[in-house]
Amino acid sequence: MTETSLDKRRNAYRSDLAAEVLRGKVSAPRFARGEARQVIAASAALRAAPDAQAGWTTEALFGEVVTVYDERDGWAWVQVASDDYVGYLPTAALSSQIRAATHRVSALGTALYPLPDIKSCPSLHLSMNAALAVAETGPVFARLEDGRNVPSVHIAERNCFAADFVAVAEAFVGAPYLWGGKTRLGLDCSGLLQVALEATGKACPRDSDMQQAEVGEAVPLDAGLGGLRRGDIVFWKGHVGIMRDSEWLLHANAHHMMVATEPLHEAVARILSTGAEITSVKRLAPGALARAV
């Protein structure tokens, strides 16, 4: 493998520094083993440059663990443990105290409260798949190790997953489109697929080209767009959608500026007018991509 073949989105190297695990694979004046940190913000936008005006590449959610390889001027250069994505986060969004996750947020979103009381002032809004360290679970609230409280109905044990990733994705219908986002406050096409698959315990890379290469098995598509079924994943260059059934497509898209559902043939015709054709259709085998727990 040559240095130029290593995808910088998932391999931590730049002109002045690289991750120690890449020694011998890339050239750099110095290498770093990195230090584990945990996201303590509700979510933190990962950026391609240490600049608050730089575009988002993805989001790191509350409780996610990252490896920090460099820090300067309020920015940390990190690699996210869950999907290996590399970028810059504000150092203020991270803590050196790592709390092992016992639960995850299973609802579209929830709030953290200082007291086990819905009338107390919430401190954070958490999104689906946020990781939580729960000290005690009660019938109404669960108490986190840091003393805050979350509604028990909104969380699940970390190895207890939803059964149907399409149903998870359907719950986001109407959520705003947001490039790089992966919460109900805003998400993009590949973010929707990643969030939905992770909610069912299946690992999924972040970007649509990675997903096309690594998720599921290819299935044939005839000229009449027949033979599809619920859960099939349809790819274009730079875009991805999920079939709700044999005819209707669910996707986060910039045409509707939200997560929307529409007949596949309408989406195909509109996207074709921009010069893009379907590049593949993938289907998950039963048990495929199951995450180790």
Describe this structure as you would to a colleague.
It is built from four helices and 25 strands. With 293 residues, the chain is mostly beta strands. The protein folds into three domains: 3-95, SH3 type barrels (Roll), CATH 2.30.30; 103-157, SH3 type barrels (Roll); 165-283, Alpha-Beta Complex (endopeptidase fold (from Nostoc punctiforme)), CATH 3.90.1720.10. It has a six-stranded antiparallel sheet, with helices on both faces. Strands 8-7-6-3-9 form a five-stranded antiparallel sheet, with no helix packed on it. A hairpin with a 2-residue loop joins strand 21 and strand 22 (239-243). The longest helix is centred in the middle third of the chain and has 11 residues, at 189-199. The chain is globular. The model is unreliable at 289-293 (pLDDT under 50).
CATH architecture tag of the largest domain: Alpha-Beta Complex
CATH superfamily of the largest domain: endopeptidase domain like (from Nostoc punctiforme)
Kindly state the number of beta strands. Answer: 25
**Backbone structural class:** mainly beta
Low-confidence stretches: 289-293
Largest sheet: 6 strands, antiparallel
